[in-house]
Amino acid sequence: MAAAAQFVAHYYTTFDADRANLAGLYRENSMLTFESSQAMGVKSISEKLVGLPFQKVKHEASAVEAQPTPNDGILILVTGHLMVDEEQRPLGYSQAFQLYKDPAGQWFVYNDIFKLIFA
Amino acid sequence: MAAAAQFVAHYYTTFDADRANLAGLYRENSMLTFESSQAMGVKSISEKLVGLPFQKVKHEASAVEAQPTPNDGILILVTGHLMVDEEQRPLGYSQAFQLYKDPAGQWFVYNDIFKLIFA
Protein backbone atom coordinates (compact mmCIF):
# COMPACT_ATOMS: atom_id res chain seq x y z
CA MET A 1 0.00 0.00 0.00
CA ALA A 2 1.49 3.28 -1.12
CA ALA A 3 0.20 5.25 1.89
CA ALA A 4 2.00 2.88 4.25
CA ALA A 5 5.34 3.13 2.45
CA GLN A 6 5.04 6.92 2.24
CA PHE A 7 4.17 7.19 5.91
CA VAL A 8 7.08 4.99 7.00
CA ALA A 9 9.59 6.92 4.89
CA HIS A 10 8.27 10.23 6.23
CA TYR A 11 8.15 9.01 9.84
CA TYR A 12 11.76 7.85 10.01
CA THR A 13 13.14 10.76 8.00
CA THR A 14 11.45 13.11 10.46
CA PHE A 15 12.55 11.03 13.47
CA ASP A 16 16.19 11.06 12.36
CA ALA A 17 16.26 14.76 11.38
CA ASP A 18 14.44 16.32 14.38
CA ARG A 19 12.11 14.11 16.33
CA ALA A 20 10.30 17.08 17.88
CA ASN A 21 8.56 17.35 14.51
CA LEU A 22 6.92 13.93 14.96
CA ALA A 23 4.32 15.62 17.19
CA GLY A 24 2.30 16.58 14.10
CA LEU A 25 1.73 12.89 13.31
CA TYR A 26 -0.09 12.18 16.59
CA ARG A 27 -3.47 13.31 17.97
CA GLU A 28 -4.99 13.57 21.44
CA ASN A 29 -6.20 9.95 21.41
CA SER A 30 -2.92 8.51 20.03
CA MET A 31 -1.04 5.88 22.03
CA LEU A 32 2.65 5.06 22.15
CA THR A 33 4.23 2.00 23.72
CA PHE A 34 7.99 2.41 23.61
CA GLU A 35 9.87 -0.51 25.14
CA SER A 36 7.03 -1.16 27.64
CA SER A 37 6.77 2.51 28.59
CA GLN A 38 3.40 4.04 27.67
CA ALA A 39 2.27 7.51 26.66
CA MET A 40 -1.01 8.95 25.36
CA GLY A 41 -1.75 12.22 23.56
CA VAL A 42 0.43 14.55 21.52
CA LYS A 43 2.26 16.27 24.39
CA SER A 44 3.08 13.16 26.37
CA ILE A 45 4.15 11.17 23.28
CA SER A 46 6.29 14.02 21.97
CA GLU A 47 7.99 14.47 25.36
CA LYS A 48 8.75 10.77 25.46
CA LEU A 49 10.24 10.73 21.96
CA VAL A 50 12.22 13.96 22.36
CA GLY A 51 13.55 12.82 25.75
CA LEU A 52 15.01 9.52 24.51
CA PRO A 53 18.62 9.26 25.71
CA PHE A 54 20.46 9.75 22.43
CA GLN A 55 21.28 12.67 20.14
CA LYS A 56 21.82 11.12 16.74
CA VAL A 57 19.74 8.27 15.38
CA LYS A 58 19.39 6.64 11.98
CA HIS A 59 16.58 4.20 11.24
CA GLU A 60 16.66 1.74 8.39
CA ALA A 61 13.34 0.00 7.72
CA SER A 62 14.25 -3.27 6.02
CA ALA A 63 10.66 -4.58 5.67
CA VAL A 64 7.31 -2.79 5.64
CA GLU A 65 4.07 -4.80 5.46
CA ALA A 66 0.59 -3.29 5.62
CA GLN A 67 -3.08 -4.29 5.73
CA PRO A 68 -6.32 -2.31 5.72
CA THR A 69 -8.17 -2.14 9.04
CA PRO A 70 -11.83 -1.34 9.85
CA ASN A 71 -12.99 2.27 9.29
CA ASP A 72 -10.38 2.86 6.59
CA GLY A 73 -7.34 2.52 8.78
CA ILE A 74 -3.98 0.96 7.93
CA LEU A 75 -1.97 -1.45 10.05
CA ILE A 76 1.77 -1.40 9.35
CA LEU A 77 4.46 -3.73 10.65
CA VAL A 78 8.03 -2.49 10.22
CA THR A 79 11.15 -4.47 10.95
CA GLY A 80 14.52 -2.81 10.68
CA HIS A 81 17.69 -1.59 12.31
CA LEU A 82 18.79 1.63 13.93
CA MET A 83 22.08 3.15 15.00
CA VAL A 84 22.35 5.67 17.82
CA ASP A 85 25.08 8.25 18.45
CA GLU A 86 28.56 6.80 17.91
CA GLU A 87 27.50 3.19 18.36
CA GLN A 88 28.76 1.10 15.43
CA ARG A 89 26.54 -1.93 15.96
CA PRO A 90 22.99 -1.65 14.57
CA LEU A 91 20.12 -2.60 16.89
CA GLY A 92 17.20 -4.56 15.49
CA TYR A 93 13.71 -3.23 16.08
CA SER A 94 10.12 -3.91 15.23
CA GLN A 95 7.35 -1.31 15.17
CA ALA A 96 3.60 -1.55 14.59
CA PHE A 97 1.57 1.49 13.57
CA GLN A 98 -2.14 1.87 13.06
CA LEU A 99 -3.00 4.95 11.02
CA TYR A 100 -6.31 6.72 10.58
CA LYS A 101 -7.30 9.87 8.73
CA ASP A 102 -8.31 12.89 10.79
CA PRO A 103 -11.36 15.01 9.78
CA ALA A 104 -9.06 17.09 7.56
CA GLY A 105 -8.06 13.96 5.65
CA GLN A 106 -4.52 13.76 7.04
CA TRP A 107 -3.11 10.43 8.19
CA PHE A 108 -2.19 10.28 11.86
CA VAL A 109 -0.84 7.60 14.18
CA TYR A 110 -3.51 6.10 16.43
CA ASN A 111 -1.44 3.14 17.69
CA ASP A 112 2.36 2.99 17.89
CA ILE A 113 4.20 0.07 19.48
CA PHE A 114 8.01 0.05 19.31
CA LYS A 115 10.24 -2.79 20.47
CA LEU A 116 13.99 -3.32 20.26
CA ILE A 117 14.99 -6.84 19.28
CA PHE A 118 17.98 -8.53 20.82
CA ALA A 119 19.23 -11.53 18.92
CA MET B 1 -3.88 -6.41 28.85
CA ALA B 2 -4.94 -9.84 29.99
CA ALA B 3 -6.89 -10.64 26.80
CA ALA B 4 -3.75 -10.04 24.71
CA ALA B 5 -1.54 -12.28 26.83
CA GLN B 6 -4.19 -15.02 26.87
CA PHE B 7 -4.68 -14.81 23.13
CA VAL B 8 -0.95 -14.98 22.40
CA ALA B 9 -0.45 -17.99 24.68
CA HIS B 10 -3.44 -19.76 23.10
CA TYR B 11 -2.40 -18.88 19.55
CA TYR B 12 1.13 -20.27 19.76
CA THR B 13 0.15 -23.31 21.81
CA THR B 14 -2.40 -24.14 19.10
CA PHE B 15 0.06 -23.34 16.29
CA ASP B 16 2.72 -25.63 17.74
CA ALA B 17 0.33 -28.50 18.60
CA ASP B 18 -1.77 -28.67 15.39
CA ARG B 19 -1.96 -25.54 13.30
CA ALA B 20 -5.09 -26.75 11.47
CA ASN B 21 -6.92 -25.73 14.65
CA LEU B 22 -5.96 -22.08 14.14
CA ALA B 23 -8.81 -21.82 11.61
CA GLY B 24 -11.27 -21.15 14.46
CA LEU B 25 -9.44 -17.93 15.32
CA TYR B 26 -10.08 -16.33 11.90
CA ARG B 27 -13.25 -15.12 10.19
CA GLU B 28 -14.25 -14.45 6.56
CA ASN B 29 -12.86 -10.89 6.61
CA SER B 30 -9.58 -11.82 8.33
CA MET B 31 -6.28 -11.05 6.62
CA LEU B 32 -2.91 -12.75 6.89
CA THR B 33 0.39 -11.45 5.59
CA PHE B 34 3.00 -14.15 6.06
CA GLU B 35 6.44 -13.14 4.82
CA SER B 36 4.95 -10.94 2.07
CA SER B 37 2.50 -13.63 0.98
CA GLN B 38 -1.14 -12.65 1.51
CA ALA B 39 -4.32 -14.57 2.28
CA MET B 40 -7.87 -13.56 3.20
CA GLY B 41 -10.69 -15.54 4.82
CA VAL B 42 -10.69 -18.66 6.97
CA LYS B 43 -10.11 -21.23 4.24
CA SER B 44 -7.30 -19.43 2.47
CA ILE B 45 -5.53 -18.47 5.71
CA SER B 46 -5.82 -21.98 7.10
CA GLU B 47 -4.47 -23.52 3.89
CA LYS B 48 -1.52 -21.14 4.00
CA LEU B 49 -0.70 -21.95 7.64
CA VAL B 50 -1.19 -25.72 7.29
CA GLY B 51 0.89 -25.78 4.11
CA LEU B 52 3.97 -24.13 5.59
CA PRO B 53 7.02 -26.27 4.75
CA PHE B 54 7.82 -27.68 8.19
CA GLN B 55 6.34 -30.37 10.43
CA LYS B 56 7.40 -29.41 13.93
CA VAL B 57 7.50 -25.85 15.17
CA LYS B 58 7.93 -24.24 18.57
CA HIS B 59 7.26 -20.53 19.12
CA GLU B 60 8.60 -18.60 22.06
CA ALA B 61 7.10 -15.12 22.47
CA SER B 62 9.70 -13.11 24.36
CA ALA B 63 7.76 -9.83 24.40
CA VAL B 64 4.04 -9.07 24.03
CA GLU B 65 2.81 -5.46 23.97
CA ALA B 66 -0.79 -4.43 23.42
CA GLN B 67 -2.96 -1.34 22.98
CA PRO B 68 -6.71 -0.81 22.62
CA THR B 69 -7.92 0.12 19.13
CA PRO B 70 -11.14 1.79 17.93
CA ASN B 71 -14.38 -0.25 18.24
CA ASP B 72 -13.03 -2.27 21.18
CA GLY B 73 -10.26 -4.00 19.30
CA ILE B 74 -6.78 -4.89 20.54
CA LEU B 75 -3.50 -4.38 18.70
CA ILE B 76 -0.73 -6.76 19.75
CA LEU B 77 2.94 -6.71 18.80
CA VAL B 78 4.85 -9.91 19.54
CA THR B 79 8.57 -10.39 19.19
CA GLY B 80 10.08 -13.80 19.74
CA HIS B 81 11.89 -16.81 18.38
CA LEU B 82 10.85 -20.04 16.76
CA MET B 83 12.51 -23.35 15.97
CA VAL B 84 11.39 -25.56 13.09
CA ASP B 85 11.91 -29.30 12.66
CA GLU B 86 15.44 -30.38 13.58
CA GLU B 87 16.96 -26.95 13.14
CA GLN B 88 18.98 -26.02 16.24
CA ARG B 89 19.22 -22.29 15.60
CA PRO B 90 16.22 -20.21 16.65
CA LEU B 91 14.84 -17.74 14.09
CA GLY B 92 13.70 -14.33 15.27
CA TYR B 93 10.24 -13.16 14.29
CA SER B 94 7.83 -10.33 14.80
CA GLN B 95 4.05 -10.58 14.51
CA ALA B 96 1.29 -8.00 14.73
CA PHE B 97 -2.31 -9.02 15.44
CA GLN B 98 -5.44 -6.94 15.57
CA LEU B 99 -8.25 -8.71 17.42
CA TYR B 100 -11.97 -7.96 17.47
CA LYS B 101 -14.89 -9.70 19.10
CA ASP B 102 -17.40 -11.47 16.86
CA PRO B 103 -21.17 -11.14 17.49
CA ALA B 104 -20.95 -14.15 19.84
CA GLY B 105 -18.38 -12.28 21.95
CA GLN B 106 -15.41 -14.41 20.90
CA TRP B 107 -12.10 -12.78 20.03
CA PHE B 108 -10.93 -13.37 16.48
CA VAL B 109 -7.97 -12.23 14.39
CA TYR B 110 -8.84 -9.46 11.94
CA ASN B 111 -5.26 -8.53 10.99
CA ASP B 112 -2.23 -10.83 11.18
CA ILE B 113 1.19 -9.80 9.86
CA PHE B 114 4.10 -12.19 10.41
CA LYS B 115 7.73 -11.45 9.58
CA LEU B 116 10.92 -13.40 10.17
CA ILE B 117 13.82 -11.29 11.36
CA PHE B 118 17.33 -11.93 10.19
CA ALA B 119 20.04 -10.36 12.33
TrEMBL record, chains A, B:
PANTHER family: NUCLEAR TRANSPORT FACTOR 2. It is found in: Cytoplasm; Nucleus. Facilitates protein transport into the nucleus. Could be part of a multicomponent system of cytosolic factors that assemble at the pore complex during nuclear import. Has a role in nuclear-cytoplasmic transport of proteins and mRNAs. The keyword Signal does not apply. InterPro entries: NTF2, NTF2-like_dom_sf, NTF2_dom, Nuclear_transport_factor_2_euk. This is Nuclear transport factor 2. GO terms for cellular component: cytoplasm; nuclear envelope. One of its GO terms (biological process) is mRNA transport. Keywords: Cytoplasm, Nucleus, Protein transport, Transport. Its main location: cytoplasm. Residues 3-116 form the NTF2 domain. It holds the Pfam family NTF2.
